[in-house]
Amino acid sequence: MHALIVVGHHDPKSLTHALAGQMAEGLASAGHTGEIADLASEGFDPRFSFADHAVHRGLAAPAADVLREQARIESADALVLVYPIYWWSLPALLKGWVERVFSHGWAFAYERGTIVKKLRGMKVHLVGVAGADAGTFQRHGYGEAMRVQIEHGIFDYCGAEVLSSTLLEDSEGPAAALLLPSARQLGEQLFDAAPLRGVQRPG
User: Fold this and answer.
1) What global pTM score does this model have?
2) What's the pLDDT score for residue 195?
3) Are 182 and 148 in contact (CB under 8 A)?
4) How far, in Å, CA of 179 to CA of 5, rounded?
5) How far is CA 78 from the centre of its chain?
6) Can you point out the beta strands (E) in 2-51?
7) What is the rounded distance in angstroms from the CA atom of residue 57 to the CA atom of residue 44?
8) What is the domain partition of the chain in residue ranges?
9) How far is CA 136 from CA 128, 132, 183, in A?
10) What digits encode the pLDDT tens for the residues 65-110?
11) What are the tens digits of pLDDT across the range 125-164?
12) What's domain 2-200's superfamily in CATH?
């Protein structure tokens, strides 16, 4: 099985990148493959432009960079997003990737007043890297926010299924390195027959 691991962080030396690398190693140890899509180093432009709006309105075909991303997704058995939590949501780089790549006509369509979900069968895993500790996120209901904003608002809208949402907390504390084994384990178990549901916290 093959996973596309999309990293939404600008710094290649970041913990987010290290976690994605550990996930890829875990996949390999379990006999699978993983491709890391480093959006920043690849120069992906996250800005939703007039050209993208024309695609949304059905007046133009997607740009070449968007078609490449769509092809990478289509070639994978699972899509994994690994990202730091900025302002309680996706960072702009990754949010822009979603806005441009999950385009009208490819991810969803409007037909006779009905939304057609075109990504049925897509399997998704979310790995959010949080600076705050678990208690802070629990008090403010971030698990529910993650479910509504990302799982439902993006992927369910297109018909994709989010199999797991993992929150790696306290990433700026002294125990941040302990998150790396958790990420490797996530990779090892990514294609297990009984994936986790909902927001999970590694034990």
Assistant:
1) 0.91
2) 47
3) no
4) 17
5) 10
6) 2-7, 33-38
7) 22
8) 2-200
9) 15, 6, 21
10) 999 999 999 999 999 999 999 988 899 999 999 999 999 999 999 9
11) 999 998 777 778 788 887 787 788 899 999 999 999 999 9
12) Flavodoxin domain (3.40.50.360)
- Placement of tokens 């549901």 in the chain: 197
* Closest to 90 measured CA to CA, from 140, 134, 150: 150
* Residue 80 structure tokens: 């994994």
Half-sphere exposure of 162 (CA within 13 A, CB side): 23
Q: Alpha-carbon distance 97 to 186, whole Å?
A: 23
Residue 138 vs residues 153, 167, 199: alpha-carbon distances, Å: 21, 11, 11
Nearest to 145 by CA among 167, 163, 173, 125: 167
Give the Cα separation of 154 and 83 in Å (integer): 15
**pLDDT on residue 194:** 44
* Nearest by Cα to 69 from 45, 89, 33: 45
Q: What is the DSSP letter of 165?
A: E
Q: Are 114 and 126 in contact (CB under 8 A)?
A: no
In this structure, how many other beta carbons lie within 10 angstroms of the beta carbon of residue 57? 9
User: 9-41 burial string, b = 16+ CB within 10 Å, else e?
Assistant: bbeeebbbbbbbbbbbbbbeeeebebebbbbbe
Q: How far apart are CA 176 and CA 160, in angstroms?
A: 31
Can you read off the two tokens belonging to residue 35?
């491709």
Cα–Cα distance measured from residue 151 to residue 98, given in angstroms and rounded to the nearest whole number: 13
